[in-house]
Amino acid sequence: MKILIVDDFSTMRRIIKNLLRDLGFTNTVEADDGLTALPILKAGGIDFLVTDWNMPGMQGIDLLKEVRADDALSSLPVLMVTAETKREQIIEAAQAGVNGYVVKPFTAVTLKEKIDKIFERIDG
Amino acid sequence: MMDAGHKTQLLESARALIAALEADNEPDAEVQLTALAEGRDNNLFIEVGKLTRDLHAAISNFSVDSRIANLTEHDIPDSRDRLDYVVTLTEQAAHQTLEAVDKAIPAANNLLELTKTVPKTTDATSQQGIDDVFLSITQRTHTIQSALSDITMAQGFQDLTGQVIRKVTDLIEEVETNLVRLIKIAAEHQPQKQVSPIVQEVDPLKAEGPQMNAAHKKNVVTDQDDVDDLLSSLGF
Fold first, then answer.
1. Contacting residues of B for A104, CB less than 8 Å apart
2. I need a surface site. Which of A31, B75, B172, B185 has the fewest CB within 10 A?
3. Could you tell me if the ipTM is greater than 0.95?
4. Cross-chain residue pair B227–A89, CB shorter than 8 Å
5. What confidence tens digit (pLDDT) does each residue in B88-137 have?
6. How far is it, in rounded angstroms, from Cα A34 to Cα A49?
7. Cβ–Cβ contact A48 with B under 8 A
């Protein structure tokens, strides 16, 4: 299981990386916005995408749309981890096909719960 | 606005003009007409003069207030630097904290394993084993202590960044006060007219970062439970 973590703040990437490691996911790669994430995704081998919304370059919501529009990536599970909390935004992300939406600041328990739920659905 | 003296003067000229016209006194009518026009011009000059003086006073007050020049030339660029400093410092502190945690977690795990290796009996041969375990426990405990102390020290950023942020908010307040003053001065010279409020088109999807006073905003969720409720209402 290889996970791509996309966030413009290195601290947040590190926190997510550490939490994922504690959950048993040790194979992670990082990108600092949608523009740098997309080539990594297109190169293949990524099984799960965790992305922020608000980033310079390409935002997370646009990255999600790019992923869903790409035949090779369209079924990739995507978890949005963001400080964006407007209802319109959450609805937009849901309609764009996000698999989970975690608001910052978040706890390890919440992250685990959402990740478990995503994989439950995929496996089920 | 026309003052009383000016009004009387105008009325007199007007009456004299009518009288002259009725009497077919053309030269006299000409004189009164000129007087009327002059009266109007004079009044306009007085008004323009007043406005010019006010404007001049406003402008000279502004250039005298070096604070404004200083704000734009120095303080605002300085604020950007200050906020960059806050970002750098908070980032450093977060990494220091995470590094300390990275050191403490394996040490704590190791401690737990070590306690399981303490020999159950205390005969002479196991005494050495017990001593070894206690030495290891002491070492790991020191690692955890120093990691915890690093975490404490890393929190020092809060004090420093807090002071810097407070300075920037003070500056913003000053800019706001000056802007309000500027608007007031400008408004005194503006004829009263109905100003329609500017309706700003807001893109609800635009990323805004953390919401301040989320509880008072209708279209903003306040926590993860709200997000989950909203998503489940959409069939998630």
1. 210
2. B172
3. no
4. no
5. 888 888 888 888 888 888 888 888 888 888 777 667 667 888 888 888 88
6. 11
7. no
